[in-house]
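Figure S7 source data.
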Amino acid sequence: MKYYINTYGCQMNVHESEKMAGILEKMGYTLAENDAVADVVVFNTCAVRESAEQKIFGNIGMLKNVKAKNPNMIIAVCGCMSQQKGYPELILKKYPYVDIIFGTHNIAKLQEFLVQKQTKKHVVEVVETEDIRLRDSMEPTRTSGTNAWVNINYGCNNFCTYCIVPYVRGREVSRPMEDIVCEVESLLKQGYKQITLLGQNVNSYGNDMADENITFANLLKQIDNLPYKFRLRFMSSHPKDLSEDVVKVMANSKNICHYLHLPVQSGSNKILKAMNRNYTHEHYMSLIDMCRKHMSDIEFSSDFIVGFPGETEEDFEDTIKLVKKVKYQQLFTFIYSKRKGTVAEKMPNQVDIKTKHQRLSKLIEIQREIATEISSKYIGKKLEVLVEGIHPKKKGYLLGSTDFGKTISFEGAEDLLGSFVLVEVQKSNNTSLSGKIVDILEKSNSEYRLPLDKIRRK
Ligand code: SAM
Ligand code: SF4
Ligand code: F3S
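Tokens for the predicted FE3-S4 cluster complex:
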């Protein structure tokens, strides 16, 4: 029996698909070549923008004929889109051949749903909350090579006015610190070289716990002290909650990367207020300065939304000014998308689509120039690189990443996968670097886990 998981959306979903793959493999399923030849197909969905939903609907629609030829195929739809009010009914109406629908809070019950399906036409279960211990009890089938994802908190309390996430992921719940540290230690023992901590807002880790020593800074310190050489990354950080304590821990650590994804969304104070982000352009810039004071080599990335309701040319210019001041290494840029049930959905002065596209293009163009300039400053420098994969196009070449998250290519043998090497940078462009290995810093002695590509993110 074969399974296939189609994953959409953020890293949180990628990791949850790993957990569902773990359940299916324990049941005896193996990975199929593609969804058309699988016995169980799971759609792990995203609802953050309308475009994501349209893509998912299109892909579920494409299985109609396949299922008609193979009526025993089971199709399950889960994740953020299924969690929205009215969506299970909508999905069943549009695609009556879907068998199982569940939300974000009960993925641990996948096996039970498959058993129930044997005697029911449809299995639909969307619940409001879950016991996170149940979620943490799942053993994931990990798929991202040298990197392992680790959840630290679930849900979100921030209610940014454009965002659907708090409605589909529920309120913030932190995992016990000892459970997280224990999981990370076991992963490092198994040979993983990079740990990425996941939360919608990692900086508010522990806020829901009575013990005031349970903070993100203390969690980072405990993980950093584990006796292994590895890279520690985390995402995402909300600027309103980023503390100097966290930045100092990063600066004084052995393993935490000097790289921060700090989503700002807009450079206009009027728009930031309307978005309910709870910080200003000036406060955000003071955070960037504080980080640079403690770590002169830190690089930043960010998320931006263009065309939020009421955004004028002047507001957009404030965004451009901020981008030029910070000089991000990388940006994730989005056109504002109306989400049902959010506060911004009902706001006046929605921006027309042509203006949104023009602003997006301008922002991308400016960022391309900045990223090219930032990359070029590394030419001639020797950088520590984690070897992560084989170059898909250049024979005999490998791919790795720098501490500050830039992809770099270089010539090398496959047995270096999972090792830390020193690479001298020779060329650069806006997205990547290339160079030559000048030293091997730590050869991987654990069996490198090639990306199994069991979970294809769409
Ligand atoms: N919790 C993280 C944060 O606050 O940065 C990530 C949230 S979301 C999954 C990732 C990004 O999607 C957000 O930072 C925002 O830029 C973008 N986003 C969220 N809702 C959106 C919407 N309605 N339209 C366009 N982009 C949106
Ligand atoms: Fe959405 Fe804001 Fe929460 Fe991020 S912090 S998930 S953007 S509501
Ligand atoms: Fe992530 Fe999309 Fe849900 S971005 S939290 S999968 S709405």
